[in-house]
Amino acid sequence: MAIFDEEPRKKRQPHEIGQDLALLSVSELSERITMLREEIARLEAELQAKDSTKSAAEALFRRG
Q1: H helices then E strands: how many in the chain?
Q2: Half-sphere exposure of residue 39, counting CA atoms within 13 Å on the CB side?
Q3: pLDDT band at 2 (very low <50, low <70, confident <90, very high)
Q4: pLDDT digits (tens, 9 = 90+) for 20-55
Q5: CA nearest to 36, candidates 3, 12, 53, 52
Q6: 3-state secondary structure of 56
Q7: How much is the pTM?
Q8: Dihedral of the CA atoms 25, 27, 33, 39 (nearest 10)?
Q9: Distance set, CA 26 to CA 7, 37, 58, 61 (Å)
């Protein structure tokens, strides 16, 4: 088992809005698309949770 035979793994770079995409490979672009879709789903779930909490609070205060 040689420890040094493997190439160092590339650190996954976060995507920056507006960054130059010309230097990214097809594989890297696909990975970023997947990453961004997952992040959009996470953001939408949080938005929905906050909307539910807000609606519940508004309903509670309207009763009085």
Answers
A1: 1, 0
A2: 8
A3: low
A4: 999 999 999 999 999 999 999 999 999 999 998 888
A5: 12
A6: helix
A7: 0.63
A8: -110
A9: 21, 17, 47, 52
